[in-house]
Specification:
The protein is α+β, with helices and mostly antiparallel strands. 44% of the residues lie in helices and 12% in strands. The radius of gyration is 21 Å and the shape is elongated. A 5-stranded antiparallel β-sheet has the order 2-1-5-4-3, sandwiched between helices. α11 crosses α12. The chain starts with 14 loop residues before the first helix and ends with a strand.
């Protein structure tokens, strides 16, 4: 038995993190079947996925304690328990890392918009290929002339300069990505979810998600799936349909800024 009482574990998590931890556990539980984890089907099931007591048994923890976790109540699992739950729920590497991050997420200050340091701003402006910088909320904080020529960031209202807002609320962006829009949009949600869950309850993040849920039926549906994808090593080929320049092909890559780890530099290199 790994955990059997709510007294175990580190300092208690913030309310938002507890809620997202519970939602994430429930979403993964509902994706499993008894056959997949080696359990007998048993009596008829009224809901999809495993029962809570089955997950608790597979993880070697108390049923009541696991229920508290899913309900977002004031308990904090240890690292050992998190690893046991990851095995029981058949989490992949990115999902396991996300569960660990949620469990370790302690108290934090309210979100404040980032400022791009001048040296990093000069680096972006000096590049010939399209480049821009985003913050933790995926706000577009800086870009160069080449990026303006391709993505038209300079034509956006200040409140719309956000990668997710552009992707899910702009018909022009949907045309820009063409047939690849849905796949790219779903990847974005899974990447952003890994960050959002750590900031759950912060007004800056909740207001962004509520706006997207209201303005985009696709976002509202895909967000509920609670898919998580690691943002590390993101990049690769990308083809877009520019309204004036036609089909453009790029290799794109993103890098965490050493001057401020909250910032991410994204560079698009044209492919001839």
């Amino acid at each position: 038995m790994v955990e059997s009482s709510p007294a175990a574990g580190p300092a208690q998590l913030p309310d938002g993190s507890r809620s997202e931890l519970g939602r994430f556990l429930r979403s993964r539980r509902e994706k499993l079947t008894p056959e997949l984890v080696g359990l007998a089907e048993g009596r008829r099931r009224r809901a999809p996925g495993l029962r809570r007591e089955e997950v608790a048994e597979l993880a070697g923890i108390g049923v009541d304690w696991y229920i508290r976790l899913e309900q977002g109540r004031a308990v904090s699992p240890s690292r050992t328990t998190i690893d046991s739950l990851a095995r029981a729920l058949r989490l992949d590497q990115a999902e396991h890392a996300h569960l660990q991050a949620l469990a370790a997420n302690g108290s934090r200050r309210p979100f404040q918009p980032e400022t791009v340091p001048e040296p990093l701003q000069r680096v972006v402006e000096s590049l010939n290929q399209p480049a821009y910088i985003t913050g933790r909320r995926w706000d577009i904080l800086a870009w160069n002339a080449a990026a303006a020529g391709v993505f038209a960031f300079d034509r956006l209202r200040a409140g719309d300069r956000n990668i997710l807002v552009c992707m899910f609320t702009s018909p022009a962006t949907r045309r820009f990505f063409g047939a690849g829009w849905e796949a790219a949009a779903r990847r974005m949600i899974a990447n952003f979810r890994a960050t959002y869950d750590l900031w759950a309850g912060d007004p800056a993040f909740t207001s962004l998600v509520e706006r997207l849920r209201c303005d985009s039926p696709e976002f509202a549906t895909w967000w509920e799936a609670h898919e998580v994808r690691s943002g590390s090593g993101s990049g690769g080929p990308k083809t877009v349909e520019h309204p004036r320049q036609g089909t453009l092909r790029f290799e794109h890559a993103s890098f965490q800024a050493s001057l401020d780890p909250a910032l991410r530099l994204v560079i698009y290199t044209p492919v001839r």
